[in-house]
Each structure stands twice: as C-alpha cells, then as structure tokens.
C-alpha cells in the first residue's frame, strides 16, 4: 500500500538529486518515508536519499519496493507548478503508479525492481577532514573550475587551516581558498583528492544554493557530500570516488 | 469462597496466598474447587485471560503434592516457562520445589525427578516421553496451559499427543486444562473426561469497541470522543487520550518492523506527558538496555524508552524483554507496541489495548489474512489491570464506516472459533505414529489404534474408520521407508496362493506387531518428519560421487521440514536454466518437466538451495536478502533450519553407513558459518566471523595456527581495529596478544580493502594508464 500527497517542489528536488546519477532506481516505500539508494553504472558516484513522511502533506506506506524510470517520472512532476500538490498512489494489482496533478491523471508503468542495478552498500569510511559550507560556495567552486579543466582538487591545508579548490587546465588555472570565516565549520585533517568535474557538476545541480553542505574528505579518498532539502525533512548523501593522481 | 475454606493444601500455602493479598477466590476459581480441582478431579477451565487461571492450576498442583504426588505444568512458550517459574518459586518458602526444563531435546533431565513441580514446554515433554524419562510415570497432576493451542497447525498435534501419552502412562493422572474462552470447551472436557468450568467472568469490566473518525464506539452502544488531530495516527490519539487520564496502553501490530516504527512514533506522544522524575528513571532504564547489548535494536529500544514508549517482540533479548515488561507494569512506560507474542500469556495488562493490525501476512494464504477471533480476543483480554484500572478498554481501528461495521461483526460481536484437532494432517500423524512406536507406546497395530482413539482427534472425528484408514496408510509409508517393521500374525489364508473373500475379511482382524527399526529410532530421536528423513536417506543413497554443497542444500530444501521459497513469476525460467547447468549435482530422482507441479517444487527447492549456497560462498547478507526478496531474519531462519537438517542428515548418513558423512558435515559447517570450505578452520576461532576470516585468508593466514605465528602488523592490517585484533589473538591463544605500538601492514590493509574482484588500485599500476583509467571506483574503498 502506498498513497501520498506531496508538493511538486519537494518531489522534484528528491528526483533530481537521484537522476543526476542514474536513469532508473528502486524506491523503498517505508512506513516512515521514502528511501532511495543508487550507484551509477561505473560505480563512481553513489546517492543515498531519504525523505521523511513528514515532508509529505499526507503519507501512507507499508514497506513496499517499486522500480521507476526517473526521467519519465520527472517529466510528469514537471507538469506541476512548484506550489502545486501531486498525489501518488500505487496500484498493487497492476503495478502501476497513479499520479494526479490538479485534475491531470497520469498512469506510470513501473519497472520490475529486479531488473534494476543492485543497490550499493555505502562504504564505511573514516574521513579525517570535514568542511561545512553554503551551497552557493560549492556552486561557485564547481563553475569556476569547469571553465579551465575536467578535474577539480578538493583539499584542506592543515597548517593554515583553510579549505581549497584547485583546477589546473592546459593553460589556465583556478584556485580558491575558503578560511574559517568563509565557512560554516571546518575540522582540519589531512585531505587532498582529485575528482571528475563531470560528476561533481551533476551533483552540484541538485544542491540548493541556500543549503548547508557538508563535505567529508581524505587523501585520495572518496568525498562524502551531505545536504538537506525540504526544510530538513529530506536528506541526501552523495559519495564520489576520486581520480587517482599519477605523477 | 474464602480461602479459609480450602482444604488439602500443604501447610504454609494459605499463609502464602494471604501474604499475596488473596482472601477470596474469584467465582471461576471457586467453581473449579467445587468441581474437585483440589481433590484430584480432571478439569477444563475455559475462562478469560487475567481471571485467575493460574490460581486454579496452583490449587490443583499444591493439593496433588500434599497427597504425596508430583505435578507437571506444560506451557506453550519458553518465555512463559520462566514467568511461571518465578511465580511458583515463591512456594519454596513452604517446601515445594520447582524445576524448569525447556531446551535440549535429547536429554531425559533426571534431576527433575526430585522436583515437586516441573514446568516445561510441550515439545520438551514430548521429547521426554520419547526418551523414556522414568519420573514421568510418577506424575499425579498435569496442567496444560493455553490448551486451545491444540488448534495450532504446527504445534497443536504435539500437545495433543503428549497429553494423551501422559494420561496413558498414568491412568490416575489428574488433568487440568486451562483454556481461553473457545467455542467448544465442552468437547475438550469430553475428551479429557473432565469437569468443565466455562465462564466469561472477569475481575474488571472490559469494554470492546472500534475507533473510527473521532469516536470510540463500544459494544454496549456507548461512545467516547477521542479526536484525532491533523496528521496524527489513530493509535497516537488513543494513546495520548489514555495517558492523559493516567492509564497505559498496549498496541498490537503485525510485524516486528511495524512494532519498532510504532514505538518510535508513540514516543512523540508519550514523551510530552512525562514528569521530570519519570524522565530520570527512564533515562536510567534506557542506559540499562544499551548496556545489555550493542545491537541496533537495543539502541532503538533505548531511544524509545527515554520517551516513555517501547516495542516488544521475539527479537529482544530476554533481559530487555523483562526490563520492558517490568517498567510497563510499574507504569513507568506508558505505551508498548507489540507483536502478538505478547498476547500469548505474558502478564502485562494495560488500561487500553489497541489492536491496530487485524491482518497479518500468511504465507499459506499468499497474502494478508485476517487474524482469528480467538487471537484478537486474547489480545483484547489484556485490557484492564485489577487494582489499578477502574476498567479495561480494547479497541480496533477502522478507516471507514464500512470497515468499522466489519470489525464489529468480525471481532466484537463474534464468538471465538472452536478448537479442532490438527492431528490428522499427514506430517503430524507420520511423526507421532513413528514416535509412538519407537518409544514403545504401541507394539501392535491394535495398540496403536487404541492409543490414537484417546486423542481429541478421535473424539472429534465424526467419520468412523477414517482414523484407521489414515493410520494404515501412514504405517505403510513408514514400512516402505524402513522406519518400522510390521510382522503379521499369519492368518489361515497366508500360506496358500489361494485367498478367499472370507480370508480377506478375516485378515482385517489380524494382529500385527510393530517395531521401529534402528533407523526409525534415530529419526524419532532427531525430531524429524519421517518424510524428511526418507528424502534425505534416498538422496544420500542415490549419490554415486561425493555430493556437492549445492546438491545437499537442494536435498534438504526438498524436505517438508524446510519451508522453501516459492518461485516468483519469471523465476521458473531463471532456475530452469540453473537446473540444466547443475543437474548433475542434484541428488535423487528429478521429475521430468512434464510433471509440472513436482517440477516446480523441484525448482523452488533449487532456489532455496541456491540461496544457501550463495550464503556459503560468502555473498553479502544484504545482497542475498535483496536478490531473494527476503528479510535478514528469514535468511537466518533458512540457515538455522538447514543447519539442523544437515546435522540430522549426518546422523542418518552414519546410520545407513553412507560414505558421504564427511561431505554432509562440511556442507553443514559451511552453511552454519556462511563460508567457503577453505575458511572452516578460521571461523572456529571465537570472534572470527565470515568477513574477518576472509580478510585473514586474503593476507595468507589460512588456519588458526597461522594466527599464533603471523606478523602482528599483518593481522592488524587485515582486521583493522586494534581491539578486534587483540581479542582474536587472545582467543586463539597467542602468548602476547597486545597490539600496542603495532602499525598496520599497509600491503595487508590494501589487500583487504579491495572489493574482492581484485580491483584494488595500486599506485604504480595506474602510472601509465590513460585518462579514463585514472578514475577509481567506489568499490575500491
């Protein structure tokens, strides 16, 4: 059983943060809310999303699992204005999702969850450094780096205690330093890793500018990116594997 | 009736009861005494929960002991055994000894012979009978608690046969059967030649009803307003309402997960109603729970408890369970959400009982099925605690007007079902007929039939001759599989080739001697369904080459003792393919594809067997549960059952002199630990599970002896944590296990960091690769 009413804004934020990595995903319809975990086919980026029942106008579920084509569901959700409500209801018999937006009824055929990529185990990593900053600073870093390079280095200077972003292009370079004053919080630790901008750009799209974003970093280790949406009732964790630096 | 009027109890018993505050017997108790409970008369007491059934049992047992006898109290659940022991332990003050026995099916527990009262589960009593415990013949009084469970498909037949056997062992035995109010208590009384006390008297008024919208409608037509605020669940509103009044509530749900989720939500309600003193006490209680174990369940439970709510299900440790039950009885906890295990007798009354889920997943129905009336009434009976609550309320929840009406019809107005014997079901009869022969209870076919005539099944069966027909076909089955030998007293026609009709008729009256073979004895002792044993024996006999693990797993999955996974749509193809790939490994005669049903069962067993193989090949627990769409508890259940069946298979293999005993033992050990063959030695070290064993193996530590000699930095590198490494080394008996000043060996750490497919990215390997390959994968970490 699954029946929920949710604002279009909340639903699209949730879907967007997953669709930047995968086209199809499994959605766990738990009693306490929705849960999605997915990893991209190359096993480089992972997402773990939860959206509490309280983020919905109304929510009823008893622990089912459905598989959805994200782009189609996003298209439908895109039909609603941001303030509008979307009603979702699962028909267990036909395995279809009925979606209603102000009189518009749409029936979405679901995908057999078995045919979707396995959900990942989120690796337990001990990452020594933590940077907490505003979403718009993430955006600024990524956009700037993208102008010169395909990669971006994220790191923490332990001595001077600042977080830095480096991008080296063939001719031009970008460097950005954010000190404690610019950041919301900083836990200093040995951290320097290089990441693919392709992935980071996509993840950045899903990060709201006013969100408080936490980055956990290590040396040549994956980065964990956390942020909340829907007034903190939704939580997204991304994990991105580093590029191995050869010298 | 005043307790002063009671005669025939041991000296000191009356003082004890008085010190408990008992002066006057409840009407059902008085009725039981009048019916001869204290004079050794058989008695069936069908009275509501919490109306003093235990007192009836106590009076019967104590008077039997005073007459120089010995009493047995049969409980349906282990949890109840300890509760009863605590209750009866107080009798030791006036010289009555109490012993409890629940586990270990193979012992005869001779130490119990010296006890006056023995508390045991029905399975334990059955096995005591099978193993011939001599003190059983000294019993003069047996109490069967919750005797209506005879209706239970799985455990009922055991209770029924056990009672019949005890009564046959001791013809003068006093039988006292305690039952919930059921539809046909008179039939049970007839069966046991017992007096009947059948009443719905309760010490406190119980109102039952249905909550719908903002109103609680009761069976007597009265209503109470319990408004549901926006976004709030019905049960939350009902809990808040009664907590504000000073009462507590018990919420019944249909699964463990739901119990946990409900407790978390109810905590938001109860948390607001606590006093500062209660908060401090609860924080202490939460701390005690956290200390008891460091599992996620215990952390979740502690979090709930801090806010005055708790969940209760079979997944809790016994310490946690009793902490929760005690705190609830003390009214410190305001609400418990529980699975129906709590309804089965454990004494935790609440002012308001809320039956939230009245449907539950039933695998035999293939979906959600409504609960029995009896079960719901048992839950409802938990409402109202004498002395503390002015009344009790039991509430079902309806989401619509129609559902409200349905609930009234289905549960509130309805009478509980009748208890029907389930003995005639073939697996039950097979098992019990063999046990009856093996334990020497019946040595002839006639003796067997005579014994079976003494069961509830015979007294309920309206079809004459049916029991005989079924018994004969079971006997034939047991003989065909070499579990029993039948020797016919040769009738007149048996020596000639010519048989007349008269001879055939006469042969109906033949006497036939029955004896269990040595294999039959083993099967009975192992507590196996004979059909499971036959399947295993045939499979092992059929194996020409050493059977593979998958072959053995599929074999035990085919037995009726293993509840196999069923095939989902489309899976017949998947597993059909697997079948053709690995056909040669499977043991026994495979059905052809044209025998559709048998073939499907065969594939379903293959699926279960494959699940066990995946587990024994060290697949991740999570990946398995995902692949087979089962819960972690189900995986555990399958593994435990397989372990037990393979253990039994090993005994059977030895019994039939099969050469594959070692193969079976190895397959069992692999499934027990969930590891490949090469890790079996390592997992025998305490503290080393399947994952750690693999990590050690990867760095070249292949057996426990290696752990004693290996470089500590390598061990640390493989096991990561210093504490873990130290305790493992200590368990393996290394002289100096300390890990102080030891640095993890980086090569060892790296070797075990890989995701198993050799995907560890070594820095020098990537030096010359192109851009694409510089990207590492998350599996590398």
From TrEMBL, chain A:
<dbReference type="InterPro" id="IPR022659">
    <property type="entry name" value="Pr_cel_nuc_antig_CS"/>
</dbReference>
<comment type="function">
    <text>Sliding clamp subunit that acts as a moving platform for DNA processing. Responsible for tethering the catalytic subunit of DNA polymerase and other proteins to DNA during high-speed replication.</text>
</comment>
<feature type="domain" description="Proliferating cell nuclear antigen PCNA N-terminal">
    <location>
        <begin position="6"/>
        <end position="99"/>
    </location>
</feature>
<dbReference type="GO" id="GO:0003677">
    <property type="term" value="F:DNA binding"/>
</dbReference>
<keyword id="KW-0235">DNA replication</keyword>
<dbReference type="Pfam" id="PF00705">
    <property type="entry name" value="PCNA_N"/>
</dbReference>
<comment type="similarity">
    <text>Belongs to the PCNA family.</text>
</comment>
<protein>
    <recommendedName>
        <fullName>DNA polymerase sliding clamp</fullName>
    </recommendedName>
</protein>
<dbReference type="InterPro" id="IPR046938">
    <property type="entry name" value="DNA_clamp_sf"/>
</dbReference>
<dbReference type="InterPro" id="IPR022648">
    <property type="entry name" value="Pr_cel_nuc_antig_N"/>
</dbReference>
<comment type="subunit">
    <text>Homotrimer. The subunits circularize to form a toroid; DNA passes through its center. Replication factor C (RFC) is required to load the toroid on the DNA.</text>
</comment>
<dbReference type="GO" id="GO:0030337">
    <property type="term" value="F:DNA polymerase processivity factor activity"/>
</dbReference>
<keyword id="KW-0238">DNA-binding</keyword>
<dbReference type="GO" id="GO:0006272">
    <property type="term" value="P:leading strand elongation"/>
</dbReference>
<dbReference type="GO" id="GO:0006275">
    <property type="term" value="P:regulation of DNA replication"/>
</dbReference>
<dbReference type="InterPro" id="IPR000730">
    <property type="entry name" value="Pr_cel_nuc_antig"/>
</dbReference>
UniProtKB/TrEMBL annotation, chain B:
<keyword id="KW-0347">Helicase</keyword>
<keyword id="KW-0378">Hydrolase</keyword>
<dbReference type="InterPro" id="IPR001650">
    <property type="entry name" value="Helicase_C-like"/>
</dbReference>
<feature type="compositionally biased region" description="Low complexity">
    <location>
        <begin position="745"/>
        <end position="755"/>
    </location>
</feature>
<keyword id="KW-0227">DNA damage</keyword>
<dbReference type="InterPro" id="IPR050474">
    <property type="entry name" value="Hel308_SKI2-like"/>
</dbReference>
<dbReference type="GO" id="GO:0005524">
    <property type="term" value="F:ATP binding"/>
</dbReference>
<keyword id="KW-0547">Nucleotide-binding</keyword>
<dbReference type="Pfam" id="PF00271">
    <property type="entry name" value="Helicase_C"/>
</dbReference>
<dbReference type="InterPro" id="IPR027417">
    <property type="entry name" value="P-loop_NTPase"/>
</dbReference>
<protein>
    <recommendedName>
        <fullName>ATP-dependent DNA helicase Hel308</fullName>
        <ecNumber>5.6.2.4</ecNumber>
    </recommendedName>
</protein>
<dbReference type="GO" id="GO:0043138">
    <property type="term" value="F:3'-5' DNA helicase activity"/>
</dbReference>
<dbReference type="InterPro" id="IPR046931">
    <property type="entry name" value="HTH_61"/>
</dbReference>
<comment type="function">
    <text>DNA-dependent ATPase and 3'-5' DNA helicase that may be involved in repair of stalled replication forks.</text>
</comment>
<dbReference type="Pfam" id="PF14520">
    <property type="entry name" value="HHH_5"/>
</dbReference>
<dbReference type="InterPro" id="IPR022965">
    <property type="entry name" value="Helicase_Hel308"/>
</dbReference>
<dbReference type="InterPro" id="IPR036388">
    <property type="entry name" value="WH-like_DNA-bd_sf"/>
</dbReference>
<feature type="domain" description="Helicase ATP-binding">
    <location>
        <begin position="34"/>
        <end position="200"/>
    </location>
</feature>
<comment type="subunit">
    <text>Monomer.</text>
</comment>
<keyword id="KW-0413">Isomerase</keyword>
<feature type="region of interest" description="Disordered">
    <location>
        <begin position="728"/>
        <end position="781"/>
    </location>
</feature>
<dbReference type="InterPro" id="IPR011545">
    <property type="entry name" value="DEAD/DEAH_box_helicase_dom"/>
</dbReference>
């Amino acid at each position: 059983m699954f029946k929920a009413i949710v604002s279009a804004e909340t639903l699209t934020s949730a879907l967007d943060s997953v669709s930047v990595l995968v086209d199809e995903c499994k959605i766990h319809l738990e009693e306490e809310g929705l849960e999605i975990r997915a990893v991209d086919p190359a096993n480089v980026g992972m997402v773990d999303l939860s959206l509490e029942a309280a983020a919905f106008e109304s929510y009823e579920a008893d622990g089912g699992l459905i598989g959805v084509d994200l782009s189609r569901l996003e298209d439908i959700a895109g039909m609603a204005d941001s303030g509008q409500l979307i009603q979702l209801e699962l028909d267990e018999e036909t395995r279809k999702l009925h979606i209603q937006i102000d009189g518009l009824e749409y029936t979405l055929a679901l995908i057999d969850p078995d045919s979707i990529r396995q959900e990942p185990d989120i690796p337990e990593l001990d990452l020594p450094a933590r940077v907490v900053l505003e979403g718009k600073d993430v955006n600024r870093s990524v956009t700037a780096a993208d102008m010169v390079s395909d990669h971006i280095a994220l790191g923490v200077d332990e001595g001077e205690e600042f977080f830095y972003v480096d991008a080296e292009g063939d001719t031009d370079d970008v460097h950005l330093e954010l000190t404690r004053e610019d950041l919301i919080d900083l836990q200093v630790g040995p951290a320097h890793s290089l990441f693919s901008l392709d992935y980071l750009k996509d993840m950045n799209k899903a990060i709201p500018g006013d969100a408080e974003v936490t980055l956990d970093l290590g040396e040549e280790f994956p980065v964990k990116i956390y942020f909340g949406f829907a007034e903190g009732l939704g939580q997204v964790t991304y994990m991105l594997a580093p590029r191995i630096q050869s010298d | 009736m005043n307790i002063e009027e009671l005669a025939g109890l041991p000296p000191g018993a009356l003082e004890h009861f008085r010190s408990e505050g008992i002066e006057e017997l409840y009407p059902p108790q008085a009725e039981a005494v009048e019916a001869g409970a204290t004079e050794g008369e058989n008695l069936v007491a069908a009275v509501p929960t919490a109306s003093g059934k235990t007192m009836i049992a106590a009076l019967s047992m104590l008077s039997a002991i005073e007459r120089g006898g010995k009493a047995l109290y049969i409980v349906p659940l282990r949890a109840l055994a300890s509760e009863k022991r605590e209750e009866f332990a107080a009798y030791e003050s006036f010289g009555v000894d109490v012993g409890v026995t629940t586990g270990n099916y193979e012992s005869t527990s001779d130490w119990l012979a010296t006890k006056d009262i023995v508390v045991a589960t029905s399975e334990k009593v059955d096995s005591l009978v099978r193993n011939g415990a001599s003190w059983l013949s000294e019993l003069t009084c047996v109490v069967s608690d919750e005797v209506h469970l005879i209706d239970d498909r799985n455990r009922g037949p055991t209770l029924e046969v056990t009672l019949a056997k005890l009564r046959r062992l001791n013809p003068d035995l006093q039988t006292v059967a305690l039952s919930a109010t059921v539809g046909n208590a008179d039939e049970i009384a007839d069966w046991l030649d017992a007096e009947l006390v059948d009443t719905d008297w309760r010490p406190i008024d119980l109102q039952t009803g249905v909550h719908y919208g903002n109103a609680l409608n009761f069976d007597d037509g009265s209503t109470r307003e319990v408004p549901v605020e926006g976004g709030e669940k019905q049960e939350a509103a009902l809990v808040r309402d009664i907590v504000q009044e000073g009462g507590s509530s018990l919420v019944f749900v249909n699964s463990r997960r739901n119990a946990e989720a409900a407790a978390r939500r109810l905590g938001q309600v109860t948390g607001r109603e606590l006093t500062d003193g209660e908060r401090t006490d609860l924080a202490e209680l939460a701390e005690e729970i956290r200390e008891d174990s460091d599992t996620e369940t215990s952390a979740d439970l502690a979090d709930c408890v801090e806010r005055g709510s708790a969940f209760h299900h079979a997944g809790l440790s016994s310490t946690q369970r009793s902490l929760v039950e005690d705190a609830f009885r003390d009214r410190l906890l305001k609400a418990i959400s529980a699975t129906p295990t709590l309804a089965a007798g454990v004494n935790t009354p609440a002012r308001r009982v809320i039956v939230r889920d009245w449907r539950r997943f039933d695998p035999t129905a293939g979906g959600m099925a409504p609960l029995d009336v009896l079960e719901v009434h048992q839950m409802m009976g938990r409402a109202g605690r004498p002395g503390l609550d002015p009344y009790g309320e039991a509430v079902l929840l309806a989401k619509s007007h129609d559902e409200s009406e349905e609930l009234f019809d289905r549960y509130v107005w309805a009478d509980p079902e009748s208890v029907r014997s389930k003995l005639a079901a073939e697996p039950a009869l097979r098992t019990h007929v063999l046990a009856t022969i093996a334990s020497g209870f019946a040595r002839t076919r006639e003796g067997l039939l005579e014994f079976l005539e003494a069961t509830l099944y015979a007294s309920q069966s309206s079809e004459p001759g049916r029991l005989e027909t079924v018994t004969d076909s079971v006997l034939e089955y047991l003989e065909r599989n070499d579990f029993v030998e039948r020797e016919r007293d040769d009738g007149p026609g048996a020596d000639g080739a010519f048989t007349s009709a008269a001879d055939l008729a006469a042969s109906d009256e033949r006497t036939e001697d029955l004896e269990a073979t040595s294999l039959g004895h083993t099967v009975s002792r192992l507590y196996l369904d004979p059909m499971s044993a036959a399947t295993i024996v045939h499979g092992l006999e059929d194996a020409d080459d050493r059977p593979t693990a998958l072959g053995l797993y599929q074999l035990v999955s085919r037995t009726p003792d293993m509840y196999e996974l069923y095939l989902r749509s489309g899976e017949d193809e998947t597993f059909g393919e697997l079948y053709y790939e690995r056909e040669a490994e499977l043991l026994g005669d495979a059905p052809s594809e044209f025998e559709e049903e048998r073939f499907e069962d065969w594939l379903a067993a293959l699926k279960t067997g494959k699940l066990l193989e995946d587990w024994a090949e060290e697949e991740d627990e999570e990946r398995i549960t995902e692949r087979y769409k089962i819960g972690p508890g189900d995986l555990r259940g399958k593994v435990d059952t397989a372990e037990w069946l393979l253990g039994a298979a090993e005994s059977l293999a030895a019994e039939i002199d099969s050469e594959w005993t070692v193969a079976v033992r190895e397959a069992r050990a692999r499934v027990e630990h969930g590891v490949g063959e090469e890790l079996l030695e390592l997992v025998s070290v305490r503290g080393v599970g399947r994952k750690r064993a693999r990590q050690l193996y990867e760095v070249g530590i292949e057996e426990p002896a290696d752990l004693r000699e290996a470089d500590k930095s390598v061990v640390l590198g493989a096991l990561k944590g210093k504490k873990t490494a130290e305790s493992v080394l200590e368990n393996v008996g290394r002289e100096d296990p300390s890990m102080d000043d030891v640095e993890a060996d980086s090569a060892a750490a790296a070797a075990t960091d890989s995701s198993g497919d050799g995907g560890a990215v070594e820095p020098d390997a990537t030096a010359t690769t192109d851009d694409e390959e510089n990207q590492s994968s998350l599996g590398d970490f």
